[in-house]
Amino acid sequence: MIRRPLVLFIFLIFFSCQAELRHEKSSKAYSTMALFGGSYTVIPEADFIKDYWKSQYGISIRDYGVRGAGFSILTSEDSIPRQVELACSDMTPAYDIYILWASSNDFIKCNDNVGNLTDYSAYDNYSLSSLGTQCGGINYSITKIKEKAPNALILFLSSIPVFITDKGYSLNCSDSDEMSYFVMMQKKCCLIHGVAFLDQFNGSAFTQQNFNDYYQTDGIHLNENGYKMLLKPQISFFSSVFGI
What we know:
The chain is of the alpha/beta class. It has one domain: Rossmann fold (3-Layer(aba) Sandwich), CATH 3.40.50.1110. The chain contains 9 helices and 5 strands. Strand 4 (153-157), helix 7 (176-193) and strand 5 form a beta-alpha-beta unit.
């Protein structure tokens, strides 16, 4: 008869080995990441979240993000599609993971041309003129990544809410309902391509009442406490898609 302590010991060793194998499998499957976006990915406060990704998932990160960038090429010369082009050039090796982190720049800079789901698709013969819309930029970015790395994991992190206090922005840029439409279209574009989507806008814990605790004074960029709060839904999201 096997004694109970011995059974317990074997049981613990078995599950310890299984956990180690899962971690090893995850590390081998995903070791490199390309990150695209605007200032959300590149400001110093964002290092907290990227350092966590590196340590938790054992990956190296190349951040292609540029301040002011959006998915529309009308929003910035250093748009996210341009970042993707750089990462998908013939001189650049394929990454295991590509993360498209939507900024608030398309919205804040009053590029109200969200576009249609068919922008830059077979329906418009993949017209480069469609890159002036948010949808066109998203479809272009995902298409180019799939061409470069068909077996890679593509993830999309939506825009987060903005609480604009500076009246220098014009038109309807302070209309939160309008920004929710931008995010809704981000999600629909991802559904078409089968890309996993994390809604950081509607699922956000940031509110008009508490944003001063998590945002910098511009009401747009997060402070470190904001990134710590944002990390919570990201952990759950990554756990589901990484299988960890």
